[in-house]
Amino acid sequence: MEQLKHDIYWHFKLKRSNGRALKALKIIESYNGKVSPKFRKLSNEYATEVLGNKAYAPWLYVYSAIQNRFDAGWIPDNYYAKEVVPRLNGDYGKVADRNFITPFLLSSMESLDVAYFINGKFCSPDSKIIDPMAVKDYLFEKQDKIVFKLENSKRGKGVYILDKNNFDPSTYISNKCGNSVFQKFIKQHPFFSEFADNSVATIRVTTVSDELGNISARASYIRFGRTKDTHIMSNSAISIPIDINTGEFHSVGYMNWLQVDKHPDSNVSFHQKTIPHFSKCVDKAIEMHRVIPFMGCLGWDLTVDTSEKVQVIEVNGINNGIKLSEATTGPCFKDLNWSNLWKQTQQS
Predict the structure, then answer these.
(1) Which Pfam families match (predicted)?
(2) Tens of pLDDT along 37-52?
């Protein structure tokens, strides 16, 4: 019965994912032209014969449409979600997405967390319960603004910027708010504010741990918000691929798979722009992953602040999709033999 539930769940999850892939493909083909029948055929064969399911082909179409070629090393985003993440991260991937647990896992990380709301109680990072009557003064003792995030918030939903005037602790208790975290508000480096100054830019660095626990950074991109957004929203953000070795932007970014060569609000070009202190961002992600080498692939969201210090915003152990990186800078994971993981899952 459990296997049947699992199969039904993934049947519909793969179907939804492929719907998104085909929608993306239609947009990409509007400016890059139709994907070659040859590449479609190779994608179908690779998905079926190597990855074990033709349902993985649509994301390979997307990658081919972006790069105008086919590469047998690509990992489809839905294969990654179904076979790679569960196999390499397991339940610890879910633990990494728990805000309260992360500082304990990564004790060397200087956390942005100020407080938590867990199971109906306000709690400090050192596990002390905070009186609801005192929580406002506690939160805003050292900062004018804080960031509130629901646990497992996705696509920018459940994230709010708060100040002392609009914070009411009774709201969280009376509405039975889900588990959440209150974090320090980051003042970002001026480089990022040139593009968008109303929201904090996030640099995603994807790191992997191989079979021997060697950690390496494989891909990176940056996301900017729009003028109207107080924080990064997936449905409106602009994502620009980054050269993982240099920190230089690609000349074009993507907004819901439409290509843009400059920020649509500030009109600042992406051409020949390099992130300041990018190597420190990569080093920080690798350093943190070395603490938990038993997790196979993680997505780190970071930024650089006005003091030129790298800030770790969050780590993603479950919802760290790879589609943009594979489509624009991939294959990023060709040497890791991830294409064989589905066979191991069937045998176990």
Answers:
(1) ATPgrasp_ST (PF14397)
(2) 999 999 999 999 999 9
**Cα angle 173, 148, 319; round to 5:** 110
Please choose, from the candidates 95, 93, 96, 76, the residue with its C-alpha nearest in 3D space to the C-alpha of residue 341: 76
| Token pair 């998104």 in the structure block, residue | 20
Strands 180-184 and 145-150, by their bridges, are antiparallel
Question: Where do the domains of the chain lie?
Answer: 2-87, 91-105+188-317, 113-184
Q: For tokens 């003042």, name the residue.
A: 187
- The one-letter amino acid at 276: P
- Cα–Cα distance for residue pair 63/71, rounded to 1 Å: 9
pTM: 0.92
What amino acid occupies position 301? D
Task: Give the model confidence (pLDDT) of 102-133 as tens digits.
Answer: 666 666 667 899 999 988 899 998 889 999 99
For 91-105+188-317, CATH number out of 3.30.470, 3.50.70, 3.40.50, 3.90.75 equals 3.30.470
